[in-house]
Design a protein that fits this description.
16 strands, Glyco_hydro_1, alpha/beta, eight-stranded parallel barrel, 13% strand, TIM Barrel, 470 residues, GH_1_N_CS, 14 helices, 6-phospho-beta-glucosidase
């Protein structure tokens, strides 16, 4: 117990589908992310049936990391990153998702990317499935509604684990796995038609993902016992609006919905409460005879989570809502909000770390935390983003307190994101998170030139002083 450990992993996070581009070259297949046309801050992106003419699909080019990765990794090394959380595009490895043999050019790209990271002493932290499912699996099988996807996913994992066993130590099985119950389309490519039973479909699909994750964990440990394989969830920290016991009950139920996922992946079983929740929602899970054994044997080594904001529970009914990461909340009068309406709550990060560590007593990993804002280039080319620095600084202060004062075991911190990239929810570029500015606008125009923001130099100092100079 005490200060941040010497081997604490300061880093940054991205996702393949939001920055790589090169969506249809070198054998890559179409993913669900490739079928997301551009939206706006006021309108969600539309998930089209394949790729249609006349629409703009910002993920198709992203920020062209596929062709700029050497330049970009060099910038991350200059900033001093100890780790780089990225993901692998499933359709680069298996274009349709159900092939027996992988696409060698896709594997070669990630070989080269990881080699580039390791050259600078940057530890790759790899998310295996990050909001992109092979579109062919949606068309042929209905995506994760179909149990067959478990085997396709595990085969995909087997190829990755063998190929990169000496290059990647840290893995996360699914990005924000619990978001399948909030918006099943973006995380899992699931469409639910009119008249279909939403709860039955999403919780059955979630069960398939949980089984797939557990199988992957067991397989990965067999291939390389040194692997550290974790889960990743959105952590929806929620306060009660008042001390009314009805608010407290609602808050408990809101949190329980999501803790079901971490309970299964960390503890290895559905709790009695989770089974009651499912029964209340009239969900009857189809569980194969070996599933419970698989879940028990495939528990994770660490728990990764995203934290951007906190929420408020009120039993009084509908009130004016704020925006958020897959979630909306009633307004908390004690908090400021971002340009996109997300509530800013640094102390909530400390509370989240404590709640998760108290519950599970396994190492934690802050996989995402950041501020989406509009940045402007000055006439001299500089980019001043004190709002981002202040946001991250305030959260890092609380993170350090959770470790030094509360005893939380924390592996790393990878703020979202290292570079400006495509927004997952709207497809915008003007909603920028990065330390590095990328010349690209919402219409796909721009030179793609990379420029360092003030936050680049600030974070470099934070890493160099191991968090002592903020």
């Amino acid at each position: 117990m005490g200060k941040l450990p010497e081997n604490f992993m300061w880093g940054g996070a991205v996702a393949a589908n939001q920055l790589e581009g090169a969506w249809n070259i070198d054998g890559k297949g179409i993913s669900t992310a490739d079928c997301m046309s551009a939206g706006s801050v006021h309108r969600q992106r539309e998930y089209t049936d394949g790729v249609l003419d006349g629409r703009y699909y910002p993920n198709h080019e992203g920020i062209d990391f596929y062709h700029h990765y050497k330049e970009d990794i060099a910038l991350l090394a200059e900033m001093g990153l100890k780790c780089f959380r990225t993901s692998i595009a499933w359709t680069r490895i298996f274009p349709e998702g159900d092939e027996l043999e992988p696409n060698e050019k896709g594997l070669q790209f990630y070989d080269a990317l990881f080699d580039e990271c390791l050259k600078y002493g940057i530890e790759p932290v790899v998310t295996i499935s990050h909001y992109e499912t092979p579109y062919a699996l949606v068309k042929k099988y209905g995506s994760w509604k179909n149990r067959k996807l478990i085997d396709f996913y595990v085969h995909y994992c087997e190829v990755l684990f063998h190929r990169f066993r000496n290059k990647v130590k840290y893995w996360m099985t699914f990005n924000e796995i619990n978001c399948i119950v909030l918006n099943p389309t973006i995380p899992a490519g699931i469409r639910i038609g009119e008249g279909e039973n939403f709860n039955q479909i999403v919780f059955q699909a979630a069960h398939h993902e949980l089984v797939a994750s557990a199988k992957a964990v067991k397989l990965g440990h067999a291939i390389n016992p040194e692997f550290k394989i974790g889960m990743m969830m959105i952590y929806p920290l929620t306060y009660t609006e008042t001390c009314n016991p009805e608010d407290a009950l609602l808050q408990m139920k809101m949190m329980d919905l999501h803790l079901m996922f971490s309970d299964v992946q960390v503890r290895g079983y559905y709790t009695r409460k989770a089974k009651k929740q499912l029964k209340e929602k009239q969900v009857i899970l189809h569980i194969e005879p070996d599933d419970e054994k698989i879940l028990h044997e495939g528990t994770v080594d660490f728990l990764g989570f995203s934290y951007y904001m906190s929420n408020v529970a009120s039993a009084k009914g509908q009130k004016p809502m704020t925006e958020g990461n897959m979630l909306q909340s009633i307004r908390n009068p004690y908090l400021e909000i971002s340009d996109w309406g997300w509530q800013i709550d640094p102390v909530g990060l400390r509370l989240s770390l404590n709640q998760l560590y108290d519950r599970y007593q396994i190492p934690l990993f802050i996989a995402e935390n950041g501020l989406g804002a509009q940045d402007h280039i000055e006439s001299d080319g500089s980019i001043h983003d004190p709002y981002r620095i202040n946001y991250l600084k305030d959260h890092i202060v609380q993170m350090i307190k959770a470790v030094e004062e509360d005893g939380v075991e924390l592996l790393g911190y990878t703020p979202w994101s290292c570079l400006d990239l495509i927004s997952a929810s709207t497809g915008e570029m003007k909603k920028r998170y990065g330390f590095i500015y990328v010349d690209r606008d919402n219409e796909g125009k721009g030179t793609l030139q990379r420029s360092k923001k003030d936050s680049f130099y600030w974070y470099k100092q934070v890493i160099a002083t191991h968090g002592e100079k903020l």
